[in-house]
Amino acid sequence: MADRYLSFATSRVGGRVAARLGLPRPARLGRYRPGQPVARGPVVLGHAADPRAVKSLRAVLDRCGATVQEHPGRPGALLLDATGITATGQLAAVHAFFHPRIRSLLPNGRVLVLGSPPESAATPGAAAAQQALEGFVRSLGKELRHGATAHLLLIAPGAEEAMESTVRFVLSARSAYVSGQPLRLAAEVPAKVPAEVPADWDRPLDGRTALVTGAARGIGAAVAETLHRDGARVLCLDVPGQRDELHALADRLGGTALALDVTADDAVPRIAAHLGEEHGGGLDILVHNAGVTRDKTLGRMDADRWHTVLDVNLAAVERLTEGLLPAVRDGGRIVATSSISGLAGNAGQTNYAASKAGVTGLVRAFAPAVAARGITVNAVAPGFIETRMTAAVPPLVRQAGRRLNSLGQGGLPVDVAEAVAYFASPGTGAVTGQVLRVCGQALMGA
Ligand code: NAD
Questions:
Q1: How far apart are CA 166 and CA 183, in angstroms?
Q2: CB atoms < 10 A from the CB of 148, how many?
Q3: Which superkingdom (predicted)?
Q4: Residues 6+ apart with CB under 8 A from 216
Q5: Number of domains observed in the structure of the chain
Q6: Which of 17-26, 154-163, 275-284, 391-400 has the lowest mean pLDDT?
Q7: Is the CB–ligand 1 distance for residue 308 below 6 Å?
Q8: Is the same domain home to 319 and 372?
Q9: Residue 392's pLDDT is what?
Q10: Residues 169 and 47 in one domain
Q11: Which ranges constitute the DSSP H helices of 340-412?
Q12: Using one digit for the tens of pLDDT, what is the confidence trace for 54-113?
């Protein structure tokens, strides 16, 4: 179901009409194409107080080929290292840096603030000042126009050298539908399998094997395509009813197909056998994407609806993660799919929200348990994404889902796929146990 209002508002005449009537004016978001520069234009790099990360950030920008300038006419990105802020009075530097520049940010531009985790602050004042950065970024994300987004990267002391993958993700069009939230870099990158620097940032998954569940269509198909684009060989899995679509996709991507219900009793041994026969036995990337909805308010929800949703969305994720862990190679990546419904709750979705909240609990618990093997476990939490799942919601709810976020539009499957690919990258080893919303900064649960 195409977003006709977006097409209207981004046309020349429609844009003028929308402006005159005071209607929302969502922007056409830039999406990533391999080979594209990381930043859209010149980058301004500032720092406050006694910064910890600016040197590493500058080196990353140089490796990305970004042009760092002090006073460009229209910056493509505004970057501030605020890791050294330890007192609320020093927050004035945040205002002083952004205030004169923010209105000249290019369309689809980026704001990135580097901070320190408030919980590691030495004094209450330092914790308050660092926590303040989150409120700043969340609000700025809501103010920005023309497809620009704002990000906060909390860097644990000692993790400064582990930021490249994340900086590349947030500065580039890969993060088109992500805004207004913190991402955390942990200091203890497991020594056994340190975060790797990909030889080619456009093909970071070269030589890796990925399993994507629910791959026949929608977000799962986009994840399979994006991981393939980044170099992985993909095992595409979906229910037997989707066999034709599944095989067509796997053939196109030079991967393999497995028609299997993730809730089947023999799901783990069948996947392991397929991996052994077709992929040499090991798995580098496991993406739990298969999911279903069976919406009803609780009083009208029969036990079947409850059970199906909990079983597919949560119990199968738990069983497959545990069962396939022996096949996941050291340094592997596990990415599960939550939902903003799971973070905020949603009327008519007690079953779905319970399952998707459960996914976040699972990810946070698995992450430390497998950290010693260098395996990371994270979740994406999509907001309103244009797929068959959301085409089925009533028109009014659909319109609300599209407009009630900072970017004023629904996301595309590829937006979620890019976030999955970011977590899947060997360079993202310092990010684990996290839930990344891909929701255009939805107001729901914000
Ligand atoms: P979709 O319905 O278009 O695709 C889901 C795929 O999962 C289908 O191909 C389906 O056959 C497969 N699947 C379902 N049950 C399965 C099972 N038991 N075993 C194997 N495969 C199974 O949905 P989508 O919109 O692409 O959603 C993908 C994921 O993203 C889901 O986990 C969903 O809950 C989540 N999500 C979607 C949105 C959105 O706006 N579309 C928002 C938040 C979260």
A1: 8
A2: 25
A3: Bacteria
A4: 236, 238, 239, 242, 245, 246, 249
A5: 2
A6: 17-26
A7: no
A8: yes
A9: 85
A10: yes
A11: 340-344, 350-370, 388-391, 395-403
A12: 999 999 999 999 999 999 999 999 999 999 999 999 999 999 999 999 999 999 999 999
Within a 13 Å sphere around the CA of 137, how many CA atoms are in the beta-carbon half? 29
215-264 pLDDT per residue, tens: 999 999 999 999 999 999 999 999 999 999 999 999 999 999 999 999 99
Q: Whose CA is nearest to atom 37 of ligand 1?
A: 382
Asked which of 170, 185, 200 is the last residue of a domain, the reply is 185
ipTM (interface predicted TM):
0.99
The CATH number covering residue 116 comes to 3.40.50.720
Could you give the CA distance from residue 216 to residue 219 in angstroms, rounded to a whole number?
9
Q: Does 377 contact ligand 1 (Cβ within 6 A)? A: no
Domain end, chosen from 185, 200, 231, is at 185
- 216 shares its domain with 163: no
79 within some domain:
yes
Show the domain range for 130: 39-185
| Ligand 1 atom at minimal distance to the Cα of residue 215 | 9
For the residues 392-405, what does the mean pLDDT come to? 88
Cβ–ligand 1 distance for 405 under 6 Å, the answer no
Do 262 and 294 belong together in one domain? yes
- Report residue 402 as tokens: 């599209």
Tokens linked to 257: 């197909």
CA 366 to centroid of chain Cα atoms:
18
Question: Would residue 355 count as lying in a domain?
Answer: yes
Give the model's pLDDT for residue 189. Answer: 56
Question: Does residue 301 have its Cβ closer than 6 Å to ligand 1?
Answer: no
The answer to whether residue 92 sits within a structural domain is: yes
pLDDT at 22: 74
Nearest CA to 44 among 70, 66, 65?
70
Q: Is residue 263 part of a domain?
A: yes
**Residue 144 pLDDT > 60, yes or no?**
yes
Average confidence score pLDDT of the chain: 94
352 is catalytic: yes
User: DSSP letter string over 403-446?
Assistant: HSBTTSS-B-HHHHHHHHHHHHSGGGTT--S-EEEESSSBSTT-
Q: Which atom of ligand 1 is least distant from the CA of 384?
A: 40
pTM of the model: 0.97
**Dist. CA 147 → ligand 1 center (Å):** 27
- Residue 347, helix vs strand vs coil: coil
Same domain, 402 and 269: yes
Residue type for position 396: L
- Are 175 and 141 in contact by the 8 Å Cβ rule? The answer is no
